[in-house]
Design goal:
alpha/beta, TIM Barrel, 1245 residues, Arc Repressor Mutant, subunit A, 7-stranded mixed beta sheet, 5-stranded mixed beta sheet, 32 strands, 7 domains
Length: 1245
């Protein structure tokens, strides 16, 4: 038995398919076992290499960085389906050269060799062989496969090639796990081959988890990652429990006959010496003209910019610039500033609207370089918060660009600095508390109802852990104590919680290097799927920074795109150009708008709470806005009232000490910014500003030991300046919450300017501003609806989509009264994208407006006008001038056929007859034949528009009457706010989403939504009101109510005191939902199936944007399955069940109740199943709920149709399932258990 052993083949959680080991746990376990070293060899990647290296070094264990590589059977450029399964091989970095070669190999495997797996080949292995140790691999290795197939010639050829290339660094890998087919035979053959060739052997254990009892959790995580469960015998799983970090004694037990193979693990570890450097400054050397020193060139640019920015800079400005340049020179960051200048020089030349966030706006150097637009001297911002010699860290210059042009900036960097030198940075998603519960339940094959119930018990605290959720939720503790399944589920969910689930591209981070990036980091293809774009680092942000690479944040900000679009629209409509940076900062109309709280669409000021605060503040300067933005955060928020009252003279301004008056007077005695904390530390505690910045960071991290030490230092400094200990303690305690939660002033001022700019354009150019807001919201019907309601509220007409007037985006035109109006953009219609609309607009502009539907067929390409696009455009009224919407929908097949026919003729060149005779006679167009009139109702049109546009443009009679109500009747949800809590209000609206509840006495009451013109308000109908008229409270009913406004836990509602049915006075009365269902068509969202109900998936049009903002959008990618296909209990939905894309189709519903009372003919004995759910606002939670419902449906295959109704915002989206169910009491009961009572109905669809 050998006393020493080193594990050389180990997978961590970064082996995203089946690894469970946490890096810290791995190295700690190696230390506990007395093992001197440990290797990390994840599947095909180096994601965890730096974290692993640092963790191992901390506990005194030698880290060996490696990878379990995939090797192509042939060339890595070969894409042969017959060779989809590459060989496995274990690579270890022996030294620095080996590590750098490993970076290059792994990068090449992802960027050049990816074909199902990230593959390398023999050619590239030979090119980068130096410093690498190679183990022959697991049973999927090239050698093992040759042995299994009995091809000994191939086995010998493999040994010869690797032996020649890697010489004494090539080892034959032995491992033993039960239930691995052919493992014993492979081992016997390897031992024999070693004896024949003299090649050394080494024993590994292919560990995937740390301790033996982790095997169940590893199995669960693998089920989660592969979308399977523990009851599936065909799932990917490990048959035995030996894939853990075994002790030397345990490893010796099975290998006593080849002790040298055990000892070789230690020999290999001893031969590995890799010292990685951290904390270096790897900023690229900026290529200056004539190779000038970078500091000299920076000075030149700054002084040139100084003349441009200041007509006659004063002494203070010149001294400030010299001071900043001196700090930059001392910290050796001149190249960094030049890179930033270069990027913004491009941005400014191209007219890309930009800003900086964070403390960068406090730099006069950056102002002179035109990186920032804020004069830090005038704004009283000090440089040390951004950069100082005591804190020698690379300063953050976080850049905001118009979000629709961010990629343009990245592309410039790639083109200018080289594709090998620029990459985006990877980030990893982990399992949060709710996701851990839901995913674990599915993997354990536990009832969906249980996971749904437990997940809803998790408090809505950001990033909460399950242990904290259990501590906070008495309901969860009760469920766990009485329900064994719940206890088992939560225990297992806690074990997988926090595990890496997936990789994605960081929203902002970009890295730029002087040397090719593969000298420092491995790269892979972008997770965004844009292969022609920049690659992504395999190291996340912290490791990239630790290595010393230049990390920059390129953020996309929609508000900058809105401002840019607004300015262009103003130029188009007025012929005048108003630059964003040039607007006056003292505009009266702007501050009046802000003081009225009219901040819908205004950056940072849109939330209900912020609107209330801004309205009370009535700001008069940008500094007021900056202070409010800084205060509206946890900690400082409690001082908002004091700040407002002090500004308006309603409260006396007080100071912690009179010596701090000058520092706090601009903010009315309230500490608002982190900068003030630093200045107080300087003035009161005797700190330098650099030391004060270190104090600020310590306070922010709230590390008790550090805080105690800083407190003592502060008090000692205050005593030296003549203050008492009591005074010092009071001031220190005041500083703490602001240092931790407050904004730095530069960041607040930067945000305040963007807020002011958006408010300025809304106040002075509202039509152009809201058109720009609508353009930005395109693709998000809910946001589009909000913006249109805002336009309507302030009197701006929004014209409906029109095939002859609309462009791709929203535009400005004159309405019939000569006023500016906004024309709805066609690309903003759901299911329609710019790539489909642009060719249509081009055809219209080239040859004039379309004359009729046949003219459209003749001139528009079939690739633009597919069925989905056409139906959506018809439903929203874009073709109204050519016929009624219902009649046009009936003609869709004929229109599509005509479009396709004309497209084929154009492609074949046969657009005219008798060309050979010199004549040009157009080929006759078959007449489509649209019937006159329109058989659709206002109600149908309203529902279609709400679904596809986000708002109704066809006014229903009820909507028209709501708009005619006197001002004392509430018809806008925005009027019901926490400000009027306790006051009485009368409101008029439509009932929906009724939830039956019971009081503590067991009496029934209702909580429901009342839909108003701009959204929903919650109302509560108590038992005494409910008893007066129970039939009044039906979904779809129109009611007028009076009640008291109440607020509880941030939710505002009306407690009903009086209620009446509202009788429509107008002709064409819109019936309630219950009545209308008997005789009027209602829209249902169906999959693209043919009349025989056979599955006919309609593939997503790649031109359409992907939307995942809400349940409604989840629904647009709803998951289906083959008709009547039986699915085992709790089996996840497989890939073939996810293909169907949804389209809208009209049909006539007839309802029956759950107890079987028929109001129309049922589809079968039990009747079809209809389930109503409501969007929660949590996209992940909503997706899980939708998948849970579909999974339940699939547990009950039958012959009854099934559908979902999803309430999202003020709309109800209806989804037909592309399979049938058995709609009996059992399914109903399961659904009630999952979703609650009152959510399930049966109906004929």
């Amino acid at each position: 038995m050998t006393d020493q052993f080193v594990h050389l083949h180990n997978h961590s959680e970064y082996s995203l398919l089946d690894g469970f080991s946490r890096l810290g746990d791995m190295v700690n376990r190696a230390q506990e076992l007395g093992q001197p070293a440990i290797a990390l060899t994840d599947h095909g990647n180096l994601h965890g290499a730096i974290e692993f290296y640092q963790s191992a070094k901390k506990v005194g264990v030698k880290p060996i960085i490696g990878v379990e590589a995939y090797v192509a059977d042939g060339s890595l450029s070969e894409r042969n389906p017959a060779k989809r399964s590459p060989f496995h091989m274990t690579l270890l970095a022996q030294n620095k050269a080996g590590y750098q070669n490993l970076l290059k190999l792994v990068t090449a495997s992802h960027l050049e060799g990816f074909y199902y797996y990230a593959r390398m080949d023999r050619e590239i292995l030979e090119r980068y062989s130096e410093g690498l140790i190679v183990l022959s691999g697991c049973p999927s290795g090239e050698l093992a496969r040759s042995i299994k197939t009995g091809d000994l010639d191939a086995a010998h050829e493999t040994l010869e090639w690797y032996g020649n290339v890697f010489q004494d660094r090539y080892y034959l890998e032995l491992m033993m796990h039960e239930h691995v087919p052919g493992q014993a035979e492979i081992n016997d053959a390897i031992i024999q081959l070693s004896s024949q060739t003299g090649l050394p052997m080494v024993v590994t254990n292919d560990s995937h988890y740390v301790r033996r009892d982790d095997h169940v959790a590893q199995d669960i995580l693998t089920c989660i990652q592969t979308n399977s469960n523990v009851k599936d015998p065909k799932r990917l799983h490990m048959e035995d429990t030996t894939y853990y970090l075994r002790s030397a004694a345990e490893m010796s037990e099975g290998w006593s006959h080849v002790t040298e193979a055990l000892e070789n693990t230690v020999r290999i570890a001893e031969s590995c010496e890799l010292d990685l450097e951290f904390g270096r400054n790897l900023i690229m050397r900026f290529p200056t003209p004539k190779n000038k020193p970078s500091m000299e060139y920076l000075r030149e640019l700054c002084y040139a910019g100084l003349k441009k920015r200041f007509e006659s800079p004063g002494e203070q400005v010149i001294e400030r610039l010299q001071y900043e340049l001196g700090i930059i020179e001392e910290t050796k960051f001149s190249d960094y500033f030049l890179v930033c200048w270069d990027i913004f020089n491009f941005v400014n030349e191209r007219g890309i609207l930009s800003a900086v966030r964070g403390s960068a706006a406090s730099s006069l150097v950056l102002y002179c370089l035109e990186v920032t637009q804020i004069d830090p001297v005038e704004a009283d911002l000090f440089f040390e918060r951004f950069l100082n010699v005591e804190r020698r860290e690379m300063p953050d210059i976080d850049m905001d660009f118009a979000d629709d042009r961010r990629e343009e900036v990245i592309k410039y960097c790639i083109d200018h600095y080289g594709r090998d030198h620029v990459a985006q940075i990877i980030t990893f998603g982990t399992l949060g508390a709710k996701a851990a519960i839901r995913d674990t339940a599915r993997a354990m094959a536990l009832p969906l109802e249980l996971s749904h119930r437990l997940a809803k018990m998790v408090p809505l605290t950001l990033n909460i852990k399950l242990k904290d959720a259990i501590a906070e939720s008495a309901e969860m503790r009760s469920e766990i104590s009485r329900n064994r399944d719940a206890r088992d589920l939560i225990e297992m969910a806690q074990r997988v919680e926090g595990s890496v689930r997936h990789a994605s591209t960081h929203a902002a981070a970009v890295v730029i290097s002087e040397d090719p990036l593969t000298e420092y980091v491995p790269l892979q293809r972008s997770t965004s799927g844009k292969e022609d774009f920049s690659p992504t680092t395999q190291y996340s942000m912290n490791p990239v920074a630790d290595i010393g690479l230049l990390k920059m944040d390129f953020l996309g900000l929609a508000n900058l795109s809105i401002l840019d679009r607004c300015v262009k629209l103003i130029a188009e409509t007025t012929g005048e150009y108003t630059g964003v940076y040039d607007v006056p900062v003292d505009d009266e109309k702007t501050f009046r708008l802000l003081g009225e709280g009219d901040t819908s669409g205004v950056f940072q000021l849109e939330s209900t709470g912020m609107r209330r605060n801004v309205k009370e503040l009535k700001p008069t300067t940008i500094n007021d806005l900056a202070a409010m933005i800084a205060l509206y955060r946890p900690g400082p928020m409690e001082h908002i009232g004091t700040f407002i009252d002090a500004k308006h003279g309603r409260a006396e301004i007080t100071y912690p000490h009179d010596d701090l008056r000058e520092l706090l007077e601009p903010t009315y005695g309230v500490i608002v910014y982190q900068d003030q904390v630093m200045l107080i530390a300087q003035a009161f505690g005797g700190y330098t500003l650099g030391e004060a910045d270190i104090l600020r960071k310590a306070m922010g991290k709230k590390i008790a030991a550090v805080m105690d030490a800083e407190h003592e230092t502060f008090v000692a400094g205050a005593l030296k300046k003549g203050y008492t200990k009591e005074q010092a303690d009071i001031v220190f305690d005041l500083m703490v919450p602001f240092a931790g939660y407050g904004f730095n002033k530069a960041h607040a001022v930067s945000y305040a300017y963007i807020a002011y700019w958006t408010a300025y354009f809304k106040a002075n150019h509202p039509t152009e501003f809201l058109a720009a807001v609508l353009d930005s919201a395109s693709g998000n019907p809910e946001k589009v609806g909000d913006a249109i309601r805002e336009a309507t509220r302030i009197g701006i007409t929004v014209e409906p989509p029109s095939i002859n007037h609309s462009r791709s985006g929203f535009t400005i035109e004159r309405d019939s009264d000569g006023n500016d109006a906004i024309r709805f953009g066609l690309a903003a219609v759901k299911n329609v994208g710019a790539s489909a609309i642009d060719p249509i607009v081009e055809a219209r502009e080239a040859a004039g407006p379309f004359k009729d539907i046949e003219d459209i067929c003749r001139r528009v390409d079939s690739r633009s006008l597919n069925r989905r696009t056409l139906e959506s455009l018809i439903r929203v009224g874009a073709f109204d001038q050519f016929g009624g919407r219902g009649n046009l929908l009936e003609s869709v097949d004929r229109i599509i056929a005509a479009v396709q026919r004309q497209s084929k003729l154009r492609e074949s060149g046969q657009t005219s007859m008798f060309d050979m005779l010199g004549e040009s006679v157009p080929i006759p167009m078959i007449e489509i034949g649209i019937t006159d009139g329109d058989d659709t109702t206002d109600q149908e049109r309203v529902i279609w528009e709400r679904d596809l546009l986000g708002v109704e443009l066809t006014q229903s009679p009820f909507t028209r009457e709501m708009r005619q109500q006197p001002t004392n009747i509430v018809v806008y949800a925005a009027e019901i706010t926490a400000d009027i809590t306790g006051q009485k209000r009368a409101a008029l609206g439509q009932v929906n989403d009724i939830r039956e509840l019971t009081t503590k006495r067991g009496e029934k009451f209702l909580s429901l939504n009342l839909t108003l013109l701009d959204g929903n308000i919650e109302i509560v109908v108590w038992p005494n009101i409910l008893e007066q008229n129970p039939s009044l409270w039906q979904n779809g009913s129109f009611v007028s109510i009076t009640g008291e406004v109440r607020e509880r836990m941030g939710r505002v509602s009306i407690s009903v005191e009086e209620a009446h049915e509202y009788q429509l006075k107008a002709e064409g009365q819109v019936e309630s939902d219950a009545e209308a269902a008997k005789n009027k068509p209602a829209p249902i969202i169906r999959t693209g199936f043919n009349e025989a109900s056979e599955p006919r998936p309609v593939l997503n049009d790649p031109a359409q944007p992907t939307r995942t903002e809400s349940v409604q959008n989840i629904a647009n990618g709803a998951r289906g399955s083959e008709s009547n296909r039986q699915t085992p209990v709790n089996n996840p939905i497989n890939s073939t069940q996810k293909e169907a894309t949804l389209a809208i189709e009209s049909t006539t519903p007839t309802r029956i109740s759950l107890d079987g009372d028929v109001t129309g003919q049922a589809a079968s004995d039990n009747g079809p199943m209809l389930v109503r759910v409501k969007e929660t606002g949590d996209a992940a939670d909503d997706r899980y709920q939708l998948e849970d419902i579909v999974s339940l449906f699939l547990e009950f295959p039958g012959k009854d149709p099934a559908a979902l109704e999803i309430e999202t915002g003020n709309k109800i989206v209806r989804l037909d399932m592309p399979f049938s169910v058995q709609a009996g009491a059992q399914l109903t009961g399961r659904l009630h258990e999952l979703l609650g009572n009152g959510t399930v109905r049966t109906t004929t669809l």
